[in-house]
Amino acid sequence: MSTTxxxxxxxxxxxxxxxxxxxxxxxxxxxxPDGGPAAGDRRWPRLLLTGLAVVAxxxxxxxxxxxxxxxxxxxxxxxxxxxxxxxxxxxxxxxxVAAAGQVLPGVVSVQVRGSGRAASGSGFVIDDRGHVxxxxxxxxRGGTVxxxxxxxxxxxxxxxxxxxxxxxxVLRVDAGHALRPLPxxxxxQTRVGESVLAVGSPLGLSGTVTAGIVSALDRPVRLGGGTxxxxxxxxxxxxxxxxxxxxxxxxxxxVGVNTAIATLEGSGSIGIGFAIPIxxxxxxxxxxxxxx
Length: 292
What we know:
There is one protein chain. By secondary structure, the chain is mostly beta strands. The chain has a domain at 106-181: Thrombin, subunit H (Beta Barrel), CATH 2.40.10. Helix content is 11%, strand content 33%. It has helices spanning 91-103, 136-139, 278-291, and strands at 52-56, 107-114, 117-125, 131-135, 144-148, 154-163, 168-172, 195-200, 208-222, 228-234, 246-249, 254-264, 273-277. The longest helix is centred in the last third of the chain and has 14 residues, at 278-291. It is globular, with a radius of gyration of 19 Å.
């Protein structure tokens, strides 16, 4: 994969294959809207640091994933420590726990196989008809699409429609599988500084929840087709495989669709992630559903 160029650029790579997928081929940078390499001026206004770049957090062919193991030499339990505070003494943490429990049943892993390549990302259910929102760059390469629910069920999904310009795509599974739709945050209610959770399948680790805050609103970032769009900025940890997953508030309402991260000199996440505001994502999804 080529080195990430300086400047906030159009989202693409890093690509990653979930551990339960198989794919042939080598890592490939995400193509631009015309099918060739992403092009155009990727320099951000000079007020930003040189070397800052935005990359998609989808996952595609050629990546690898590790795993965690308990230390075999772990020592005996230490006694005499101060006990943790009760849940009532930590209302913010309690709110986040409740929000995670509410949204996890409606979040899915999105997996794509085809033409010797594989890709994976995340998505979430938006209605009781089985429609699932994800990022366009997760499914843009084509192939057979399936989703894996929180209960481990793998369901075949049909691509309803794509919108490369806004980086939104809609899938559909059989409504009889009872996936839980997530509520959407009311327009204009999201506030800078409020706690949020990023939910999805980073590096193939389904059902992963990370916490942070809304760092900024209406942050202009190049997403999808390359035009600058206002995005929700967050410091909740977002990594490859999170693409298409929801960013939710403490009420369990979706405030955005996780889609990209900022990096410095090709490094990984630096605590600056971007999500498509849910009001825009919902409008695009409704249009795609009506046309599909």
